[in-house]
Amino acid sequence: MRRKQEVTPRLFRPPEESFFLLGPRGTGKSTWLKHVLPDALYLDLLRPELERDLSARPERLRDLVQGSPDRDTVVLDEVQRVPQLLSVVHSILESPDRRRFVLTGSSARKLRRGGFDLLAGRALVRSLHPFTAAELPTFRLEEALRHGLLPLVVSSRRPQDVLNAYASLYLEQEVRLEGLTRNVGAFARFLEAVSFSHGGVLNVANVARECQIERKTVAGYVEILEDLLLGFRLPVFSKRARRELSAHPKLYLFDAGVFRSLRPRGPLDRPEEIEGATLEGLVAQHLRAWIAYGGEGQLFFWRTRAGSEVDFVVYGSAGFWAIEVKSGGRVRPEDLRSLAAFAEEYPEAVPVLLYRGTERLRIGGVWCLPVEEFLRDLRPDRPLPVGGEPLGKRGVTRKV
Prior knowledge:
Elements: H1 2-7, E1 19-22, H2 29-36, E2 41-44, H3 48-56, H4 60-66, E3 73-77, H5 85-94, E4 100-105, H6 108-113, H7 116-119, E5 124-127, H8 141-147, H9 151-154, H10 159-176, H11 184-194, E6 200-201, H12 204-211, H13 215-227, E7 231-234, E8 250-253, H14 256-262, H15 271-295, E9 298-303, E10 309-316, E11 319-325, H16 337-345, E12 350-355, E13 361-363, E14 366-370, H17 371-377, H18 388-394, E15 396-398
Parallel strand pairs: 1-4, 1-5, 2-3, 3-4, 11-12, 12-14, 13-15
Antiparallel strand pairs: 6-8, 7-8, 9-10, 10-11, 13-14
Helix pairs in contact: 8-14, 10-14, 11-12, 12-13, 14-15
């Protein structure tokens, strides 16, 4: 399993200077760094003896660095375990004995408290995401929708068992040990309840009512979810808005498989609802990775108070796209209405519909693309795989 992760190339390119590498547990930060930086001085703070030693005497980090003068790069893995080390790292970066530091973390809260903002002026901030389709020669959409693309899961022979244990891993190792909340049971109920909001507009009051927790507590839990890099909120795209827009963000869990493992199922749950939310989340995590690895843009969604909604808006120097995701295998006229409304407001945008069919279509100015093909072609060194001569030559233009 470890060998499979090591040889899988990633689209992320490490900077030459010092940098933070943030990402949830299981995204392969440690394995990947050992593979691409084999000659670095590697300090794993998940080792209890090293964590105790450096917690008691953070200044000993300087001794360890000076004891390896031939190591130009120093990796501090899971640095949030001993956030006091950030002041020592800052001091070393300011000294004549300059080294390149790579600081990994799976929790942003303790890093901020330990001087993250101060050090961010001396180190870049980057993130590592679950695998993307372009990184996996054997990518299969059905498998990705079932188990997600977390490297820890993809490399396992029993992916469902790993997914089932993943939430417990965070509850025990991150929430309880780092003291992020005193009531781990309430947080566990929150994780289950908030899974119903995946891919939807976040209503904190509804989540609080569902898990019988105070609204203020739930708002804090959402922040913990983001601090642990397990979830993210998408803001509403409102540039030059002429229509009245929704004010609430959408919420996504960071991986489609983790979402499915948390989402309860019962006789009242329609399978297409879960499938649609899973596919939308899979596209969301790909777009986030594309931006994080160099795609040059920001990710939003668009929703009017009248009810028109576009799942994703990508806006930046690389371009302007409005993307709707449908889990059906055919394009219906009603699937294009929100994109048409967005195009009316923003004619500069390229409207795109991603669906489960196999044909590339151009319908009324909207590119309708097979979602699996779109994900496979998504690479940070290229614009979004939409439009252009190759697509136009292979596409079919028709009206509905």
